[in-house]
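Example record

The entry below shows one chain as it appears in the dataset: sequence first, then structure tokens.
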Amino acid sequence: MEPVLQTILGAVPRATAFWLLIPLALAIAVAVAALPRGVRAPAVPVADDNRFAAELEAAAAEAAETAQRRRTEWLAAQTTVDEAWQAYEEASEAARRIAAATAFPLMSRRRKPGENVHRQRYLHRVATELCRSRQLSIAQLADVFAHRGWNPRLHPVQQEPILRNAVRAFRLEAYRKAVERERAAWRGAEAAAETLRTLRADAAAARLAGPAAETAEQHWWTEQWTPAELHAAV
């Protein structure tokens, strides 16, 4: 009987400790469940001591925007060149077709009174319509009205090929101007791309070198060239 009693008395402390641990575990579980989910400790910003590299990276970001804009302008200029050439080819074909259709000379006959006035009005009217549709320039229209290089007494059939040749000359000049603008846009795009490549390379080198490699000259550069000024310079 005595050994059994000793076993029972020895098990009492362990049972008591077990039952005391259960409420403690429940309290811990409730406390954990009450914590807000998705809350993270705010990230501590890391100070960037490499001022020169940071300035170069900001300038490179501005240069990237400028390079993209210049490339877009160049692509638009290319489209304008293609359209101008297509317009010139159409005008040239129309001039050849009209010249072939009016190759035969007109039969000379006595003009009626006032016929020269009608011919002049016809020339002025057709030239004005072509200028309004942007097939003749203002300067060409002024020459028509001033009769500089134009004979207003010619028959309308004779005036037609001359007008079409003037349209072809206008289209050719427009194409040449479009080519000049496209070349200028290409040079601007290339210069912006070269500036971007240089800035990115300098920024990478400065970042790898670390803040200790900064010199007085680099500090002067960062004070003189802000991203806005670099954007304007590019």
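Notes for this example: The chain has seven helices and no strands. Residues 1-6, 38-47 have pLDDT under 50 and may be disordered.
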